[in-house]
């Protein structure tokens, strides 16, 4: 039997969002290094020299023409879980919604489908859906919380 792990749902969303942003940053860094390798310190394209063969003169090709220089990006990430929801009251505090991820074994409780999706490469959005109903959308920014912005006044 696996030990149960608990974390705040907002913390879980934040961890997923930050992992996605970090992966995007690494893709950009790797791409930047690939592009830099195609040029010398003075900014001139590095050349590949192909020797003469069977009467064909030697050929000089800029290295950047031989590399795939498109920026790889993560455009979408989606995770889905079967969950059970319960309403809890701890002491005389307010009601809270508890979610438990379930796997495999049948249960008498009603199961729901939780989907967490991230869309877009340059300015990604996070989205939380339960049974296909969108509950929350937020823009991902480094260090940003998935909490909705609350404005007063």
What labels would you give this structure?
153 residues, alpha+beta, five-stranded antiparallel sheet, 1 helix, 19% helix, elongated
Describe this structure in words.
It is a single chain. With 153 residues, the chain is of the alpha+beta class. It has a domain at 73-139. Helix content is 19%, strand content 34%. It is built from one helix and seven strands. It has a five-stranded antiparallel beta sheet, with helices on one face. Strands 1-2 form a two-stranded antiparallel sheet.
Please describe the topology of this protein.
Blueprint: H1 9-37, E1 47-50, E2 59-62, E3 76-89, E4 95-102, E5 111-119, E6 125-130, E7 133-139
Antiparallel strand pairs: 1-2, 3-4, 3-5, 5-6, 6-7
Short description:
The chain is of the alpha+beta class and 153 residues long.
Shape: elongated
Largest sheet, order of strands side by side?
4-3-5-6-7
How many beta strands in the DSSP annotation? 7
The largest sheet, given as strand count, sense and whether it forms a barrel, is: 5 strands, antiparallel
Helix and strand run: HEEEEEEE
Per DSSP, the total helix count is 1
């Amino acid at each position: 039997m696996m030990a149960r792990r608990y974390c705040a749902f907002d913390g879980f969303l934040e961890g997923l969002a930050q992992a996605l942003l970090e992966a995007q940053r690494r893709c950009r860094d790797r791409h930047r290094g690939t592009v830099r390798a195609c040029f010398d310190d003075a900014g001139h394209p590095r050349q590949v020299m192909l020797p003469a063969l069977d009467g064909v003169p030697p050929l000089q090709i800029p290295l950047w023409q031989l590399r795939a220089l498109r920026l790889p990006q993560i455009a979408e990430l989606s995770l889905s879980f079967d969950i059970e929801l319960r309403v809890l009251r701890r002491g005389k505090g307010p009601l809270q919604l508890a979610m438990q991820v379930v796997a495999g074994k049948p249960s008498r409780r009603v199961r729901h489908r939780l989907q967490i999706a991230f869309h877009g490469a340059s300015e990604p959005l996070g989205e939380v859906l339960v049974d296909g109903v969108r509950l929350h959308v937020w823009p991902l920014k480094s260090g940003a919380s998935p909490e909705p912005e609350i404005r007063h006044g």
